[in-house]
Amino acid sequence: MKSSKKAFQLLLVYLLIIFINNCITKNEISKKEIKNLIWPQPPQNPKIALIGYISSERDLGLSFRKKLAEILTGEKSSIKKLVRPVNVAVDNNGKIFVVDLEYNNILVFDRPNKKSYFIGNKGRVRLIRPMGIKVDNSFVYISDNYQNRIFVYDKEGDFETAFGGDRILNRPVGIALDKMRNLIWVANTYNHEILAFDLKTGKLVRKIGKRGRGKGEFNFPSFIAVDNKGRIYITDFGNFRIQIFDSKGNFINDFGSFGEGPGNFSRPKGIALDSDGYIYVVDSELCNFQVFNINGNFLLRVGQLGQELGEFDLPVGIYIDEQDYIYVADQLNGRIQIFKYLKGKKPPKNTNLTE
């Protein structure tokens, strides 16, 4: 009896050693992959550093129980993974909410609890073609490009409300929250306009633009960002430019033109701002994101076509959190790449964001 107990204890120790070695090996590989991925390269001071990526719930780190089960059975656990991620948002608790066209709902990576789940795939009210996504402390806001509505769920995926409808929205894409003014801005893409709805009532309260090429006019606007002063930044997709408006919808400035060089756009998509107010714009065709100042002056570009880390294949959405972590939906590579704006500091040590 004692020998059996001792043998069992030795087996547990052996399995634990294998488990730890597997973790160390994976961590060392991860560090090796992202080493020296900074922009711009020396001797210039780096401003952007690659931190890591997420492509499946396995990247969150399996629990000891799941890892032990894999070792004992020799079979890998069934996992949820990204296939065609097109947009992303992150809450203050570290949960990553991803719009993935393969599932036509939202795949949530709950990093603190090392688990994942879906939003929009249960109950009477389901998503069909989600595109835009934003989160606040309580809710997840999603534009559905097919149902012409904005859906609101709680963080666990329970449906709360919806607004919009076919009479108001026509293939909406990007959305942005202005919590100070209690507004949600929506890129009403096929009507070539930007709409603002009251967050509490869902009523339409403001409209910007019409189809055209002039200032304040749009040609398939796609994505939106709002800064802490309420200024609205809009990707004017078909006009190959970014337009900026004040909180009341008055035109301020625009920048960009068609091309492949620095500061040019070919298929501009996602847009976001860091804590210093720099503007980040993803270009799906050029497979990069570019950084501009408030005046529209080009500062930096990151990425090119490819499958390696720091490269993209048809990227779409971008999100920047309060700590200046930059999340980019790398669609055809099936992953969210995570960068960091350095604010003039030295590159951070390779950081495991899943911990």
**Lateral strand order in the biggest sheet:** 1-2-25-24-23
Strand content: 35-45%
- Quaternary structure type: single chain
Quantity of strands, as a count: 25
CA-based gyration radius: 22 Å
| Terminal Cα span | 40 Å
* Uncertain stretches: 15-32, 350-355
| Major β-sheet profile | 5 strands, antiparallel
Helix content: 10-25%
Textual characterization of the structure:
This protein is mainly beta and 355 residues long. The chain is built from 2 helices and 25 strands. The strands form 6 sheets. Strands 1-2-25-24-23 form a 5-stranded antiparallel β-sheet, with no helix packed on it. A 4-stranded antiparallel β-sheet has the order 3-4-5-6, with no helix packed on it. Helix 1 crosses helix 2 (64-73).
Short summary:
It contains 2 helices and 25 strands.
